[in-house]
Write a structure and sequence with these properties.
Elements (H helix, E strand, L loop, with lengths): L8 H14 L29 H10 L9 H7 L7 E3 L10 H16 L7 E3 L10 E9 L2 E10 L2 H15 L11 E6 L4 E6 L2 E4 L9 E2 L1 H18 L10 E3 L4 E2 L2 E3 H18 L2 H16 L16 E3 L4 E2 L2 E3 H18 L2 H16 L10 E4 L5 E4 L4 H18 L2 H21 L12 H18 L2 H15 L21 H20 L6 H15 L14 H4 L12 E2 H14 L9 E2 L5 H6 L2 H14 L68
Parallel strand pairs: 1-2
Antiparallel strand pairs: 3-4, 3-5, 5-6, 6-7, 8-18, 9-10, 9-17, 11-12, 12-13, 14-15, 15-16
Helix pairs in contact: 3-5, 4-5, 6-18, 7-8, 7-9, 7-18, 8-9, 9-10, 9-11, 10-11, 11-12, 11-13, 12-13, 13-14, 13-15, 15-16, 15-18, 16-18
Length: 689
């Protein structure tokens, strides 16, 4: 049996340290408009780059397992922290289950932290033994910031916990109140266990996530309501456009509004309106649509008319001189839905102009040019590298335009692109890549959805068969490991919440199309969506897992990007919500999915490191969302980054200076799985002083 160990508290140490550097002097686009407060200075060890020879020696020695940020406070305060005597129960009792174990570990740590006088005794009722020593690490979090840490090892778990807690108390100031207002996280890294305090309960942590082991329609409905509230918060109060990133650890947005994420937000709000019949949601979408219309180029002289500018720079008050076919395509989706609902001609007129511009971006082969970009006053440059993602988005937009207008020029253009994609499948199979990346699930799912849209326009049986063939191929690439709560439900090679959400959305569309066509075996698509929905919900901020964010109320309902990167990207929320809304009417009452925990004795003996390595190899074989080393480097101007293929926001040097020193080294077994990535992201360069 394979079971993932709960790990990664140590990663949050690196996250907090790097975030403090990245957000130093933050001045723009905080949620409440206030200027950022000064962050803590960097540890002295990161102040300058190590000599090259020292770096080589460090790599040869392996990762440094010690976190020295609190050493000075521990040395100063530990002598005044009481050292209680541990007493055991008269009867060790029956073997513990996982929940009782977590609760008792936390309860014992809390008792140690509250000791006031030397000589007191504390009972430790944790009858657990092991063939190797217990290493315990106790962390304290307050308002998303790590304020204490203590570590100790001993053959007795009770002794290791006591000493680690005493050191955490010393790190927090040395008094009985040092950890009083903190939220504790306790890690037994050598035994693959991590525990997060939530009220008087100990929650399981798995790769830094609080895993969701079961859910039902009631919880899914609650997540829909929370996601709706989050999406309404990402719309700018003045311009009504949507931000792309919310930096939850700093409680701030980036100083840009994005056309495509405004369109995606509007599309989801319209789905919510159809579900709830809430006129307020329609009104919000119409306001957002005014931002979309303001971002459409009307310049007939340079052949950009109909395209949509990618972003609005809030500091300069000007749109970025860049028009991307994906932005125009996704905006067409929303404008057509608005026109169908309101019958206002301005939405259809704008959608038609966008469709005409998309046709002008087609190549004779049926592929599309990715974007146009221009430096101030200079000529427009064309990015012509082929992207399956963008080609699929254009095919979907043209197919939907034909269904809405019956204009054959859109169908003719769509047919050319559909033939291009069908030939790609004939040559390479359903699992496809492009000139940006090797075969991966995101590109492959856009191929499926775009051909599905074309099939709806034409009724072509051959295209329908291709849709189901490639959908079945994707089903076979989904992680199906109910013993592994961290991976079960996402797709191999899709490492972000946006990717999982998008694939769930596509599979929900295939499921509904399958039912409409009276096909057999449609429930396989529904089951895939249910598994993916569980996966996404454990990446959603809520009271259980918001211990690393500054403002839990603002983060609530946001779907954070990954274990490593805790910002929220708007498309992660939109895709999740679209999948939730699509699948909800087809779900039965009662538990929809249940993932049992491995018994405690097996968890403590499980070789999590070997299991991770095997699973990581399968993820790398699945494409890795453009993270593979053989990917061509992409500038922001040429990158198809709309639907989960990018790893994060634009990064700049920390504090406006070149990065210095080695990246944070994470202890083996404590870091999230996969190769060590970049520093946890801070705001882009425009937000740094």
């Amino acid at each position: 049996m394979r079971q993932k160990s709960p790990i990664s508290i140590a990663w949050f140490s690196a996250l907090a340290s790097a975030a403090a550097l990245s957000w130093f002097g933050l001045a723009g686009c905080q949620r409440d408009g206030a200027k950022g407060s000064e962050a803590s200075p960097a540890p002295s060890g990161a102040a300058s780059a190590a000599p090259a020879s020292d770096k080589k020696k460090a790599r040869a020695r392996g990762p440094d397992l010690h976190d020295d940020r609190f050493d000075a406070k521990i040395a100063e305060n530990l002598p005044k922290v009481p050292d209680p005597k541990i007493i055991g129960p008269d009867n060790p009792g029956a073997p513990l289950d996982n929940q009782v174990f977590r609760d008792r570990v936390l309860g014992f740590a809390r008792k140690i932290a509250a000791i006031e006088k030397e000589g007191e005794s504390v009972a430790c009722d944790i009858p657990v033994t092991s063939s190797k020593q217990f290493r315990a690490v106790v962390w304290g979090y307050r308002e998303g910031v790590q304020v204490a840490r203590g570590e100790s090892s001993d053959a007795s778990l009770c002794v290791a916990l006591k000493e680690a807690t005493r050191r955490a108390v010393a790190a927090g100031g040395g008094t009985k109140d040092a950890l009083g207002t903190t939220r504790l996280a306790i890690e037994l890294p050598d035994h693959g266990m991590s525990i997060l305090e939530h009220g008087d309960k100990g929650l399981e942590l798995d790769h830094g996530l609080v895993p969701l082991r079961s859910f039902d329609k009631a919880l899914l409905t609650k997540r829909i309501d929370e996601g709706q509230a989050y999406l309404l918060r990402v719309l700018d109060a003045e311009h009504k456009g949507a931000h792309k990133y919310y930096y939850a650890p700093a409680d701030t947005f980036e100083p840009e509004l994005h056309t495509i994420y405004t369109a995606s937000t509007g599309f989801t709000l319209l789905k919510l309106h159809a579900m709830k019949k809430d006129k307020g949601l329609l009104d919000q979408t119409k306001k957002a649509a005014e931002f979309l219309l303001s971002m459409q180029s009307r310049d007939e002289r340079d052949h950009t008319a109909g395209g949509f500018f990618y972003t609005l720079d809030l500091k300069r008050g000007k749109p970025e001189r860049k028009l991307v076919v994906g932005t125009a395509s996704k905006t067409v989706f929303t404008l057509l839905e608005l026109h169908a609902l309101t019958k206002e001609t301005k939405y259809m007129d704008a959608a038609r102009k966008a469709g005409d511009w998309l046709i002008s971006m087609q190549l004779p082969t049926g592929a599309v040019r990715a974007s146009l970009s221009q430096h101030e006053g200079g000529p427009w440059s064309v990015q012509a590298k082929e992207s399956t993602l963008y080609t699929g988005q254009v095919l979907s937009a043209l197919s939907r335009l034909h269904r809405a207008t019956k204009d054959t020029k859109y169908l003719d253009a769509a047919a050319t692109t559909a033939m291009f994609l069908a030939q790609k499948v004939e040559k390479n199979g359903c699992y496809v890549g492009d000139e940006y990346r090797k075969p991966n699930p995101i590109s492959s799912s856009w191929l499926v959805l775009s051909l599905l849209d074309f099939a709806k326009s034409t009724g072509d049986k051959r295209i329908e068969d291709l849709v189901f063939r490639c959908s079945r191929d994707l089903l076979g690439r989904q992680w199906k490991r109910p013993e592994d709560a961290y991976r079960h439900g996402r797709w191999k090679g899709s490492l972000s919440s946006s990717g999982t959400g998008w694939l769930a959305e596509v599979m929900s569309e295939v499921f509904m199309f399958c039912r409409d066509k009276g096909k057999e075996n449609c429930d396989g698509y529904k089951d895939a969506v249910v598994a993916a929905v569980r996966q996404i919900m454990q990446y959603t901020y809520g009271p259980e897992n918001d211990f690393v964010v500054k403002n839990p109320k603002a983060a609530a309902g946001g779907v954070f990007w990954s274990v490593r990167e805790r910002y929220v990207r708007t498309d992660s929320v939109c895709h999740a919500m679209n999948a939730y809304i699509n699948i909800l009417p087809f779900l039965a009452d009662g538990a929809l999915l249940e993932l049992p925990e491995m018994p405690l004795s097996q968890r403590l003996a499980f070789d999590a490191d070997a299991d991770d390595k095997n699973a990581e190899a399968e993820d790398r074989a699945g494409g890795g969302e453009g993270e593979a080393e053989d990917e061509a480097p992409m500038s922001r101007a040429e990158d198809p980054n709309e639907e989960g293929v990018r790893k994060g926001p634009r990064r700049g040097p920390l504090n406006g200076k070149p990065e210095e020193g080695p990246r944070p080294r994470l202890p083996k077994g404590l870091r999230p799985p996969g190769p060590r990535g970049p520093r946890p992201p801070g705001p882009p360069p425009e937000m740094q002083q």
